[in-house]
Amino acid sequence: MNRRLGGLVGALTLVAVSTTTGCFARYSPCPGEGQRPDELASQDLVGTYQDAADRSVTLKGDGTFTTTGWPTDPEGTEGPPEEREGNGTWELTSTDSVDYPISLTFHTISGYWNSSEEGGYYGTGLYVDGSRRVPRLYEYRGDPDVCDLNRFKRSN
Known about the structure:
The structure is a single chain. The protein is an alpha+beta fold. The protein is built from three helices and nine strands; from the N terminus they run H-H-E-E-E-E-E-E-H-E-E-E. It has helices at residues 2-21, 42-45, 115-118; strands spanning 47-50, 56-59, 64-68, 85-92, 102-109, 113-114, 122-130, 135-140, 149-154. The chain has an eight-stranded antiparallel barrel with strand order 1-2-3-4-5-7-8-9. The longest helix is centred in the N-terminal third of the chain and has 20 residues, at 2-21.
């Protein structure tokens, strides 16, 4: 009897430690996070998307994009983020890719980056859910385990 009780206590301790230290992967999606729509194609994503802070990204059918107020994370940028503009190329990655579903490669970010002067590119990406007709883009703010999502809604 004591051996069973000891095994139970050990198992419960292992579960408690692993969940508080983050040793196991999140087993359920964040509230508001969904799956990439089936049969999603690049043309389904063409349009302009805005978040609650009026940051925007415009994905064009020729594989290029423009942004306003985005990205916000590069260190050493000048001026207010809401005035920052960027451009580059984008692609919808394959469904078996471990990269962002929507990969963004910046060629220019005002006040920070110009690939023709600096060499190389600045890359980031977005996640997508919703449907083919109404795709919704989102990104994580900080640690994905915290589930703080920033959503971009299509405005056109």
